[in-house]
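INFO batch 0412 | record 1 of 1 | parsing
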Amino acid sequence: MSDRQSYKSDLSDERWALIEPVITSWKARHTSVSGHQGSYDMREIVNALLYQSRTGCQWDYLPHDLPPAGAVKYYFYKWRDDGTDQTIHDLLRWQVREKKGRLADPSLVVLDTQSLHAAAGVPADTTGRDAAKKVPGRKRGLAVDVLGLVIAVVVLAASVHENAFGTALLDKVAANAGTVKKALVDQGFKKTVVDHGQQVGIDVEVVERNPADTGFVPQVKRWIVEQTNGILMLHRRLVRDYEHRTASAESRVYWAISDRMSRMLTETSTPAWRGA
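INFO prediction complete | emitting tokens
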């Protein structure tokens, strides 16, 4: 760790210790032909990613006392493409679940989607308009456990139907957590998703809204995914979709939730930006 003035998003020694073994192992497998390990502190690379996640700044607006944007981009893309971001996320998720007295992988997940406006530079062929919510941009689909921890994330154009999100999420859940036997969804998901769940061994239950309810009424268990969406909104980079590739948008979710889980494991609070 450098002697620079710290940012609120920086990893503490305890939080860094949770993910450092994964990064160190990755570096050992990715030396150059000459054996050079690179000149940047890996902890500072992660600090830069977390700073950008929390503040929403552009690459070129990263503070000068963090590694240069080119270096941070390099590792973000590398870890996105080889799954290191998800490896870190999943290891933290298993630890959080075990700390809460649960098995490493869940038996039940909750699925939902959230439509987001896309920034001007996002390629048009990866965006669309959510006809129901009148939102132009992209849609983020999540599968979370009963603690609100992410099991799978899918980002597609906002015009894509819930059925496509449901089937894609179920495929990822089945691949990432074979213990899942049940999924709860809202009425936006149709029979196609229920049938696909049977194909991958997951019982999909459509939780219907009580017609007598007025206003916002949380649905038992299903509400937890809304809480996770709210937590993601604490990360300004996720309030709007700025990523050129949907894979990058998915990676941003893993980093944001990894940030939260590392704080849960070390019992440190997450600084809010409301009122800033």
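INFO post-check: DSSP finds eight helices and six strands in the chain.
INFO record closed
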